[in-house]
Design brief:
Length: 97
């Protein structure tokens, strides 16, 4: 659900289905702190609710890097780099067919 913080920052309220795959999402997002993933702004574990930054589609990565004379699509942006390893104790989500 789209939301907006008092300072005007666009956000999203995410209400999670109570399953094992989403149980540690807040922990992982907090660990990554916006490096290659959306930033976790707040969470309420008792309600399975996350408040995260809003990702708005924009410039394709190819155009982003070309416009800045950077080597290519695979070079990570300083803030939106590749997501690192999962925090200790956080299991990778299962994928069911």
């Amino acid at each position: 659900m789209p939301a907006e913080l008092p300072d005007g920052t666009p956000a999203v309220l995410k209400l999670q289905y109570p399953d094992a795959d989403s149980g540690q999402e807040a922990t992982a997002l907090a660990h990554w702190a916006g490096a290659g993933a959306i930033r976790l702004l707040a969470d309420d574990p008792s309600r399975r609710a996350l408040l995260v930054e809003r990702c708005v589609p924009g410039t394709p990565l190819a155009g982003f890097y070309q416009a800045r004379g950077l080597p290519g699509v695979h070079a990570p942006h300083p803030r939106h780099g590749l997501v690192g390893a999962l925090p200790h104790g956080v299991a990778r989500a299962s994928r069911s067919a």
